[in-house]
Amino acid sequence: MLNNPESLSFVNVFIVPCRITLNQSKNKDMHTLLGAGGPIANALTKELIHANETIRLVSRKPVATNTPKVSWVKADLLNEAELFAAAEGSKVIYLCAGLVYDIKIWQQQWPVIIKNVINLIKHTGARLIFFDNVYMYGLVNGPMTEDTPYRPCSLKGEVRAKIAEQLMNEAKMGQINVTIARAADFYGADSMNSFFDMMVLDKFAKKEKAQWIGNPDTLHSFTYIEDAAKALFLLGQTPDSGNQIWHLPTAAPMKGKAFIEMAAKIYETKPQYLAINKLMLRLVGLFKKVVAGTVEMYYQYDHDYHFDSTKFEKAFNFKPTPYDDGILKLSKTMYKKQN
């Protein structure tokens, strides 16, 4: 749904403060998506298809496609040999994988995946764009930016911090070219992977009472998934964006109550909701493991969660989709109003 800050001081070396000029030349080499089939990968695939790129989708489960320049290859990210074979000939590789929301699986599998992907990038010479979250920052008092130090206050955050440090250390040594692209909690997914989609939009679409995790009087940021996909595409088309961290374009945060009232108005229903506290999460987690994995992240929902994407917006002259526009579109497409 959802370490040591001094060790990341080198990241500033890679920051490019000036506006970036996009490379307008058509890239004919392959764009490879590791972890295909998920909501981010699906949205990014649409952007790449629209740009007439050659695309390789890589996952353990089949991904249906009838587009001539899109192919699917079966590979397990835990298997280096399969990964090398699947991604041969790649120009840009996007790591969009999502693991089961279980800390033991994260601790066991993420280190192996990252090691394999680093070796893959060295083997192919491709650029790596890693779709990341904000768990490594921990509880932040104020806006989260690309310079926010890593102070995870969760086991999942510790895993993500180590991943980011490992990738950027390889970049610092000149071993790989990596772009870390971070998003806030997202909405507008083609699956029930977003708590805002699942607990607010889908509920209001059915004229049901919404649900909100944590304190609805705190600020929260949500990244519109279409904006995230467009931003990943732009990063893939822009070599100068490499060896940096980027926060993907995200509208300014609002209070939970404001999100609920805005969505209710668009769905023409009453802004009724149930606030879910930590104890309630714990109780549900006794029966649902994925919910149990959310309990340690509760700090994100009872404190302000302010994700700042100013750097990307200025560099790419990109304006995030306003929340009301995103919700309105979803009310006509993915989460249609029901009578």
Automatic annotation (TrEMBL):
Pfam families: Epimerase. Residues 33-244 form the NAD-dependent epimerase/dehydratase domain. It comes from the Bacteria. Gene3D superfamilies: NAD(P)-binding Rossmann-like Domain. InterPro entries: Epimerase_deHydtase (IPR001509), Lipid_A_modif_metabolic_enz (IPR050177), NAD(P)-bd_dom_sf (IPR036291). This is Nucleoside-diphosphate-sugar epimerase. It comes from Pedobacter suwonensis. The lineage of its organism: Bacteria, Pseudomonadati, Bacteroidota, Sphingobacteriia, Sphingobacteriales.
